[in-house]
Amino acid sequence: MQLLINTLDQLRNENDLAVQLTNQTAVNSEVEELQQEVGGLQQQLQMAEEKIRYFEPDPSKMTSMEELESCEKHLENTLNCVTERKVHIYIYVCVCVCVEH
Description:
elongated, mainly alpha, 101 residues
């Protein structure tokens, strides 16, 4: 009888160890996945920061009149796009309000 109890205890211990190893493997997998996600988000952040530089240029770093004019043109184009989008949204809202009444 004691032999069965000892064997059962040993099996429980082995099972507990197997569960711990399985849980640790799952945790390691999740950590790796999170690290990959963080890496991707860091790349997105860097790309966004580069795009922001287009909208907040540093005049002291501009070396030519062409660069300054190019930046000005880019900002004007962006402003035009924003203005057009604003008009489209305004028209959409007006149409929705008129339809409701």
